[in-house]
């Protein structure tokens, strides 16, 4: 039979109007009499193309169901995921329902289970940069949380916990046999994570996800039972109501044929089953101050700012060297690879690479990393794996001329012998700012000279004249120039001057 129709194609083409009239014709074509709608949908031509999926009657019955008391948008096409609009800071009820059949999961009878509610990004690209996005939000909204639980309104929730480092998640215990409702408040709005251009930007969607766990033999709630989520957008107060009204008015203007391509608006939002969130719940159970990689603030020494006093471009403010000794080796274990990622400020991606050894990570190409981590972090990770340090804008080599060498030089100048046997050891000074103040600062650091005692830095010019080192002079230094320098006391006796030769 040469029919290659799909259900959505039937609906798109408008054939659904004449379906009942066509059923008998289809039955005659197949020689099986008249078919009902359910019979037709059961035919192979309407089956899901992936035959590996289990039949509906074999699908696993979810043990729980979570229902959020907020209406879905009417402007969502058939077969697309529902979208629910929420107001910032408003309390919304999530009903925690026991959906088990008789005999399902008997080990939790009479016991509590733990649920973690999170607000996370829906867009995959934002998920990869989630840590940076949330850090930026935290910086702009100090002391605020992305998600809170309205405790006075909630019913049946026990032992509520919020980790200060987990701003987008709350957890609690509850009894499946009792009426339980958790009232949540989302404080971030969708447009806060949109690059602002000319106003009126479209906000990004979020997801509300609920993960439920049962207690293990050691008393921790780490045994996963069920997960479900839904798509939301968050508006400023009253904004969700206006958006819902706008969508409803738009749908009313559509023709009856166009309306059939869209879902109706439902009074409540049912969270659909999904994979569990990769973060392990032990962070909450143990109330550990060390946050999980994806949503938490990194430790202060993780995001260290390069020290401007450093004479090396690879020197970090936390004292961590980024030299070849920190290179990730192919023989590194999974644990060592995780430590390397944390040490090099890639804590956001420890979850993504949780099963990668050093060899696995090193096999990834630049294109692979850019696709996984995004352009910015992908290139940075690739350069870190290849131990590519940033070249300084200018490098000069400086040596402090010993006093004894100066005296010998003056003595030898009289007899023409310049071989005094002195050994000159130079220090590399890497310049990024290309400023005279940077030269002074890094000379003081390299040669252990108190910075406040350096009055001026001069360069010895023709006929021995002293030329003040300015920003313009530094910018005209040739790369990898060599200098000897001496110190002379200042005229007022306070501090001294440095003379570059």
From TrEMBL:
This protein's encoding gene: UBP1
GO molecular function: DNA-binding transcription activator activity, RNA polymerase II-specific; RNA polymerase II cis-regulatory region sequence-specific DNA binding
Grh/CP2 DB domain: residues covered: 60-297
Intracellular or extracellular location(s): Nucleus
Species for this entry: Phasianus colchicus (Common pheasant)
Polar residues composition-biased segments: 280-315
Basic and acidic residues bias spans: 238-262
UniProt xrefs under PROSITE patterns: GRH_CP2_DB (PS51968)
Name of protein: Upstream-binding protein 1
UniProt entry keywords in alphabetical sequence: DNA-binding, Nucleus, Phosphoprotein, Transcription, Transcription regulation
Biased composition regions of type Low complexity, renumbered to the chain: 316-327
GO cellular component: nucleus
């Amino acid at each position: 039979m040469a029919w290659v129709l799909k259900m959505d194609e039937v609906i798109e083409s408008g054939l659904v109007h004449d379906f009942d009239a066509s059923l008998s014709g289809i039955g005659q074509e197949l020689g099986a009499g008249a078919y009902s709608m359910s019979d037709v949908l059961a035919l192979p031509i309407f089956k899901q193309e992936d035959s590996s999926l289990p039949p509906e009657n074999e699908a696993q019955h979810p043990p729980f169901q979570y229902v959020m008391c907020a209406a879905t948008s009417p402007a969502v096409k058939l077969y697309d995921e529902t979208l629910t609009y929420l107001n910032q800071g408003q309390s919304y009820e999530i009903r925690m329902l026991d959906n088990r059949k008789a005999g399902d999961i008997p080990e939790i009878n009479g016991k509590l289970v733990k649920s973690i509610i999170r607000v996370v990004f829906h867009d995959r690209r934002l998920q990869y940069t989630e840590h940076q996005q949330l850090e930026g939000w935290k910086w702009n909204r100090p002391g605020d949380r992305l998600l809170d639980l309205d405790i006075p309104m909630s019913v049946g929730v026990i032992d509520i916990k919020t980790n200060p480092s987990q701003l987008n998640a709350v957890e609690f215990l509850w009894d499946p046999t009792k009426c339980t409702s958790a009232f949540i408040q989302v404080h971030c709005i969708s447009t806060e994570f949109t690059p602002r251009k000319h106003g009126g930007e479209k906000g990004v969607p979020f997801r509300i996800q609920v993960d439920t766990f049962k207690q293990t033999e050691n008393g921790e709630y780490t045994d996963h039972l069920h997960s479900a989520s839904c798509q939301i957008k968050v508006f400023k107060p009253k904004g969700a109501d206006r958006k819902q009204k706008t969508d409803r008015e738009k749908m009313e203007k559509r023709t009856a044929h166009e309306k059939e391509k869209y879902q109706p608006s439902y009074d409540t939002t049912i969270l659909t089953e999904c994979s569990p969130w990769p973060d392990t719940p032990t962070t909450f159970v143990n109330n550990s101050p060390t946050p999980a990689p994806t949503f938490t603030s990194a430790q202060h020494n993780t995001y260290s700012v390069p020290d401007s006093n450093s004479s090396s471009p690879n020197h970090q403010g936390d004292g961590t060297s980024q030299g070849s000794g920190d290179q990730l080796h192919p023989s590194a274990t999974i644990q060592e690879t995780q430590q390397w990622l944390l040490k090099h400020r890639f804590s956001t991606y420890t979850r993504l690479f949780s099963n990668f050894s050093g060899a696995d990570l090193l096999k990834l190409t630049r294109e692979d990393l850019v696709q996984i981590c995004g352009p910015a972090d992908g290139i940075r990770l690739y350069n870190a794996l290849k131990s590519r340090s940033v070249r300084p804008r200018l490098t000069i080599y400086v040596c402090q001329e010993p006093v004894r060498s100066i005296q010998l030089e003056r003595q030898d100048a009289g007899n023409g012998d310049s071989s005094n046997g002195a050994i000159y050891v130079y220090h590399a000074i890497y310049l990024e700012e290309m400023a005279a103040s940077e030269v002074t600062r890094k000379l003081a650091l390299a040669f252990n000279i108190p910075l406040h005692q350096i009055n001026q830095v001069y360069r010895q010019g023709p006929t021995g004249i002293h030329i003040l080192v300015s920003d313009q002079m530094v910018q005209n230094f040739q790369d990898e120039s060599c200098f000897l320098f001496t110190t002379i006391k200042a005229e007022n006796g306070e501090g001294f001057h440095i003379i570059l030769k």
